Amino acid sequence: MSLNSGAEAKLILRYPDEETTRAVVEAISPDNYEAPPGLTLSIEMRKTEIIISVKCPKGVGSLLATLDDLLSCLGAAEKTLQSLD
């Protein structure tokens, strides 16, 4: 397999309650609409879990950059929620 072939990842994040989970989903959801062409990003909420699937036809490097951006957004959302407590 070439490093430039498509790549995909699935993240499963768990939160203490549904309210927190929903707030994080709402905070990161607008990013779905700005995904680069060809990139598939889906976010699903199941009670206290967020399941994020990313498919990137441009390969592992592009997937890692996307995951890095996504994790930064998640970190910012979590930090904001903590500051509200």
In short:
With 85 residues, the protein is of the alpha+beta class. It has a single domain, classed as Alpha-D-phosphohexomutase, C-terminal domain (TATA-Binding Protein, 2-Layer Sandwich), CATH 3.30.310. Helices cover 42% and strands 27% of the residues.
Uncertain regions: pLDDT < 50 for 5+ in a row? Answer: none
**In the residues, how many domains can be counted?**
1
Major sheet details: 3 strands, antiparallel
Number of helical regions: 2
Terminal Cα span: 47 Å
Succession of helices and strands: EHEEH
The secondary-structure class comes to: alpha+beta
Query: What general outline do the C-alpha atoms trace?
Result: elongated
Mean pLDDT: 87
Total number of strands: 3
